[in-house]
Design goal:
Oligomer: single chain
Helix content: 40-55%
CATH architecture of the domain at 69-234: 3-Layer(aba) Sandwich
Strand content: 15-25%
CATH topology of the domain at 69-234: Rossmann fold
Structural class: alpha/beta
Number of helices: 9
CATH superfamily of the domain at 69-234: Vaccinia Virus protein VP39
Order of helices and strands: HHHEHEHEHEHEHEEH
Largest sheet: 7 strands, mixed
Distance between the termini: 49 Å
Radius of gyration: 17 Å
CATH class of the domain at 69-234: Alpha Beta
Number of strands: 7
């Protein structure tokens, strides 16, 4: 095993996340590709091995500790960027049907390379989330929507909840929310068909504070949502 693989094994054990040698090998290759491509395009500000392992990989995998994700669930990672949390979840749970969605084609090209090199299968979709939410192919078609540090909750909910099936769940991964972010988000969530969010605070093994906001979809999203980005910015729901 490489130094990175040995360290990731130690860190995953500390976090009580069980990874096989094959998974650890895939994470190691993912980290190498991330650093290589990051020299050509802006994928992440975190480029050291420890940071990648903890702040990207372990943080993404915490979802599997905190949420019951059923076998074969469909998951869309909105604004996936460099692939977090979607690709780490796929590495740990290759049974999931993952869609990596982003508005930047270059990032998706990187992710297509990652998937090929890691011998994993996922859909990559070049589309803005507010357009996807009005597209019959994607609207209310996923069991789970994830987003990591993309936008404030009241904005993010309008991007993500229209993509979730009734009975599905929207998972927002954040650091410490702004003082009024949850309150504003709750107003938007109610309009969009979600029930009151469950807030789970946790701490990474390096001491970083993190927040997972879990929103169950209990009714269909009204047809007019999501709105265009201009309308959404001018008159947000929260």
């Amino acid at each position: 095993m490489t130094e990175f693989e040995i360290r990731l094994k130690e860190l995953s054990n500390q976090a009580e996340i069980d990874l096989t040698e094959e998974m650890i090998s895939r994470f190691s290759l993912y980290a190498s590709l991330l650093k290589e491509w990051n020299e050509k395009m802006n994928l992440t500000a975190i480029t050291d091995d420890e940071g990648i392992a903890v702040k990207h990989f372990i943080d993404s995998l915490y979802l599997l500790k905190l949420v019951d994700i059923k076998e074969g669930n469909s998951l869309v990672d909105v604004g996936t960027g460099a692939g977090f949390p979607g690709v780490p979840l796929l590495i740990a749970r290759p049974d999931l049907k993952v869609c990596l969605m982003d508005s930047t084609a270059k990032r998706l090209k990187f992710l297509e390379t990652v998937l090929t090199e890691l011998k994993l299968t996922a859909d990559t979709v070049h589309i803005r989330a507010e357009e996807a939410g009005q597209n019959k192919t994607f609207r209310e078609s996923f069991d789970i929507a994830t987003a990591r540090a993309v936008a404030p909750l009241h904005i993010l909910s309008e991007y993500c909840l229209p993509l979730v099936k009734k009975g599905g769940v929207f998972l927002s991964l954040k650091g410490k929310p702004e003082s009024d972010e949850i309150e504003r988000g709750e107003k938007a969530i109610k309009v969009l068909g979600g029930e009151k969010a469950q807030i789970m605070e946790y701490e990474l093994i390096n001491g970083d504070k993190r927040t997972l906001i879990i929103t169950k979809k209990i009714s269909q999203t009204p047809p007019k949502y999501p709105r265009t980005s201009a309308k959404l910015a001018k008159k947000p729901l929260g």
